[in-house]
Design goal:
Shape: elongated
Helix content: over 70%
Distance between the termini: 41 Å
Strand content: under 5%
Structural class: mainly alpha
Radius of gyration: 16 Å
Number of domains: 1
Largest sheet: none
Number of helices: 4
Order of helices and strands: HHHH
């Protein structure tokens, strides 16, 4: 992918990616609940702390990969959705 040939994904893909990032605004409340329930050095607590980084990077790579590989973009967003479901099931 050359820098001159890069085209943005369609608007509906950008909207889906933004919607997938919206639960991160409630993440401080999730972290306070995790710290109240679990030990500070528990493995699950560490996973909850690095999850926002995973979500942001997953959406970034989904955005960047849409033009070349649309199926990879969909897979990344579906795995992120499953990760959100898994995190909220742990609470």
């Amino acid at each position: 992918m050359n820098a001159n040939n890069y085209q943005r994904p369609p608007l509906w893909v950008i909207v889906i990616i933004i919607v997938m990032l919206l639960p991160l605004f409630s993440w401080p409340a999730v972290i306070t609940r995790v710290l109240a329930d679990y030990d500070k050095y528990d493995t699950i607590s560490v996973l909850f702390f690095i999850f926002p980084l995973y979500a942001v990077l997953s959406c970034y790579y989904a955005y960047k990969s849409y033009e070349a590989r649309k199926d990879l973009c969909v897979i990344l967003l579906c795995v992120l959705l499953l990760a959100y479901i898994g995190c909220f099931c742990l609470l």
